[in-house]
Design goal:
globular
Length: about 200
């Protein structure tokens, strides 16, 4: 179904425009396959701004040509993270340095702690309630993204150290800003390439 829907989109709506893939959890697994089928090493790769493959372990070497994003404005790359409380190691899910992890506060893959002051806004269940700034800091650690326990009204009830449900929510404003920046960079680079031909 995902493949058929994407093929329909390409045929009827894309018209050569840049593409951003954003997915979470099971959708990330579908998107990983979509990238292998349509982008990696193929002509459509030139239209890929970036892929945000969040909530599942994606190996650094998942694709032949498309690599993990290393810089805030890099294009034709993918970002990925899975969010856990600092100090927690999941038993069920794969960990290790071979798993791609992007810190969505710095958009790098280094292991430095990014303070919560870099967090420009999280959203909770009531999306229209606005952003909560400085909710969590983040650190890449052995194939995971470790964060401090968030504090917001009712957060004392959260005992699960797996923050899968909030992988995007904790970093919503940062992700939105990053999508804009990568798109601007992509369009600028494309214009430069076309003007030099």
């Amino acid at each position: 179904d995902v493949k058929a829907a994407f093929e329909y989109y390409l045929e009827h709506y894309n018209e050569g425009r840049p593409i951003i893939i954003a997915a979470h959890s099971q959708g990330t697994l579908h998107s990983e396959q979509l990238i292998k089928d349509f982008f990696d090493g193929q002509a459509l790769e030139e239209q890929l701004v970036a892929a945000y493959l969040v909530g599942m372990p994606i190996p650094k070497a998942a694709f032949q040509n498309i690599k993990p994003c290393e810089k805030v404005d890099q294009t034709n790359c993918f970002c990925s993270w899975r969010t856990y409380k600092k100090g927690y190691f999941p038993e069920k899910w794969e960990t290790g340095d071979h798993i791609a992890v992007t810190n969505p506060l710095t958009w790098t893959t280094d292991t430095k702690v990014a303070p919560k002051s870099l967090n420009k806004g999280a959203v909770l269940r009531k999306f229209d309630a606005g952003f909560i700034e400085n909710l969590v800091g983040a650190q890449v650690h052995e194939g995971m993204l470790w964060v401090n326990k968030p504090k917001f009204p009712g957060s004392f009830l959260i005992n699960n150290p797996n923050y899968h449900i909030a992988d995007f929510n904790f970093f919503y404003a940062n992700v939105r800003e990053n999508v804009e920046l990568r798109t601007e960079t992509y369009l600028k680079n494309k214009a430069q390439r076309e003007s030099s031909v």
